[in-house]
Specification:
This protein is α/β, with parallel strands linked by helices. It has two domains: 212 residues, Alpha-Beta Barrel (TIM Barrel); 124 residues, Lyase, Ornithine Decarboxylase, Chain A, domain 1 (Beta Barrel). It is 28% helix and 21% strand. Strand 14 and strand 15 form a beta hairpin. The longest helix has 16 residues. The protein starts with a strand and ends with a strand. 42% of the residues are buried. The structure holds pyridoxal-5'-phosphate. Pyridoxal-5'-phosphate binds next to helix 9. Its cofactor is pyridoxal 5'-phosphate. Pathway: Amino-acid biosynthesis; D-alanine biosynthesis; D-alanine from L-alanine: step 1/1; Cell wall biogenesis; peptidoglycan biosynthesis. It is an enzyme of class 5 (isomerase). One of its GO terms (biological process) is D-alanine biosynthetic process.
C-alpha cells in the first residue's frame, strides 16, 4: 500500500501571505509556523515565505534552531519563551527573540550575564488566561524588564485573542483590545495582538505586528466560515486512493463493530487512509471523501490504515483512483464540521506516514 500524500501548493502559501499584506498595509507580518507549520512542513514553509514575511513565530526552541541551521535569517520569536537557564546560550547564539510570560524568566534574566542583548516581548494576559502577566501586576514587572541589563530596549509587548468562534466574539475581543491599549499607552517598543481572527475582523487590532497562522494555510480562523470566504486558497490537498472495490448486499454490516449496515445493494470502496495517518477515528458515517468529482460518504468505523466509502450501486470507480480527503474542492473546514475536530487540529495531527510533497 502506498502512503497518502499531502500536496502543499506553494503558490497558495505565497498568495495567502500577499492577501494578508493587502489587509495589513501598515503592519509587519510574523508568519506563525509552529507545529510543523500546522502540518505543512516547517522548513519548506519558511523557505517559501522568507522573502515575503517579516518574521516567524514558533512554539519550540527546536523549531527555531532548525530554521537557523537552514539559513533562515528572518527574526524568529519563541512564542512562550524559555523555561530553563540552559536554553539561553542557544537562544543568544541563534539570535532568537523570546516572549517573557512568567516571573521565573525575569528572575533568570536578572541573574545571568549574556554575551549579547536579548530581544524580548512582554506578554500581557488580556483575557485568554493562559500565558502572560495580569495587567495589574504588569507595570512593576515592565519596570524590572527595563532595568534588566541583558535586555534590548525598548521592551516589546504582545497579547493574544482568546475567541475564534463564540457568540459574543466581538465584545470579548474589544475588552481584550481595550485592556491591551491601556497597558501599551505611552510605552515605546513594538506591539502585537492580532492573530488571523484579528487580521480579518478588527483592523484596529493590527498595530505594529500581526501574527497570522491558519490564514497562511488558506483556512478560516472563524467558525462557520471557510478560507475562501476570506479570499484565501487552501494550501493542502490531502489525498490517497482506492485499494479495493467491493459488491455489497443490503443488510450487511461494514468494518469493526459492524456499526453501519447498508439498507440497499451498493458498491463499497476502500480508501487507503486511516487514523494511523492522522485521519480522525471518530469521523462518523456520512463524512465526505471526494472521488472522481463526487462527494461520497464514509460508512462504518475508520480503521488504522483504511476507511470504507459508499460509492453507490452504479459507480464506475476503479482500484487506484484518487480519493481526496480534503483540499480545494472539499475544504478541511467541512471535515471539521462532520467530525467535531477543529480544522486546526485536523491539519496539525497528520502523522509522519503521510508524505508531504510541494508543488507550485
Ligand atoms: C498560534 C498562534 C498564533 C496564530 O493563530 P491563528 O489563529 O492560527 O492565526 C498567533 N499568536 C500566537 C501567540 C499563537 O500561539
Amino acid at each position: 500500500m502506498k502512503s497518502p500524500v499531502a500536496v502543499i501548493h506553494s503558490n497558495a502559501i505565497r498568495y495567502n501571505l500577499l492577501q494578508i499584506r493587502k489587509i495589513v498595509v501598515h503592519s509587519r507580518i510574523m508568519a506563525i509556523i509552529k507545529a510543523n507549520a500546522y502540518g505543512h512542513g516547517l522548513l519548506e514553509i519558511a523557505k517559501i515565505l522568507k522573502d515575503l514575511a517579516d518574521g516567524f513565530g514558533v512554539a519550540r526552541i527546536s523549531e527555531a534552531i532548525m530554521l537557523r541551521n537552514n539559513d533562515i535569517t528572518n527574526p524568529i520569536l519563541l512564542l512562550a519563551g524559555f523555561v530553563n537557564i540552559n536554553e539561553l546560550p542557544i537562544i543568544i547564539k541563534n539570535e532568537i527573540d523570546v516572549v517573557i510570560q512568567d516571573i521565573k524568566q525575569i528572575e533568570i534574566l536578572e541573574k545571568i550575564k549574556l554575551q549579547k542583548l536579548i530581544k524580548v516581548w512582554m506578554k500581557i494576559d488580556t483575557g485568554m488566561h493562559r500565558l502572560g502577566f495580569r495587567p495589574e501586576e504588569a507595570e512593576i514587572l515592565y519596570k524590572r524588564l527595563i532595568e534588566c541589563k541583558n535586555i534590548q530596549k525598548p521592551i516589546n509587548i504582545i497579547s493574544h485573542f482568546s475567541m475564534n468562534d463564540k457568540p459574543g466574539l466581538h465584545d470579548i475581543a474589544f475588552q481584550q483590545l481595550n485592556c491591551f491599549n491601556n497597558f501599551i499607552k505611552n510605552k515605546l517598543g513594538e506591539k502585537s495582538i492580532a492573530s488571523s481572527i484579528g487580521i480579518l475582523l478588527w483592523q484596529i487590532s493590527h498595530l505594529d505586528w500581526v501574527r497570522p497562522g491558519i490564514m497562511i494555510y488558506g483556512a478560516s480562523p472563524q467558525e462557520g466560515k471557510q478560507g475562501k470566504d476570506f479570499g484565501l486558497l487552501p494550501a493542502m490537498t490531502l489525498k490517497s486512493y482506492l485499494i479495493a472495490i467491493r459488491k455489497h448486499k443490503a443488510g450487511e454490516p461494514i468494518g469493526y463493530g459492524g456499526i453501519w449496515i447498508s439498507d440497499h445493494d451498493t458498491t463499497i470502496g476502500i480508501v487507503a487512509i486511516g487514523y494511523g495517518d492522522g485521519y480522525p477515528s471518530n469521523a462518523p458515517s456520512g463524512t465526505p471523501i471526494l472521488i472522481n468529482g463526487r462527494k461520497v460518504p464514509i460508512v462504518g468505523k475508520v480503521s488504522m490504515d483504511m476507511t470504507s466509502v459508499n460509492l453507490g450501486i452504479n459507480s464506475h470507480d476503479k482500484v487506484g483512483d484518487e480519493a481526496i480527503i480534503w483540499g480545494d474542492l472539499l475544504p478541511v473546514e467541512e471535515i471539521a464540521k462532520h467530525t467535531g475536530i477543529s480544522h486546526y487540529e485536523l491539519l496539525t495531527k497528520l502523522t509522519s506516514r503521510v508524505l508531504i510533497k510541494y508543488q507550485e
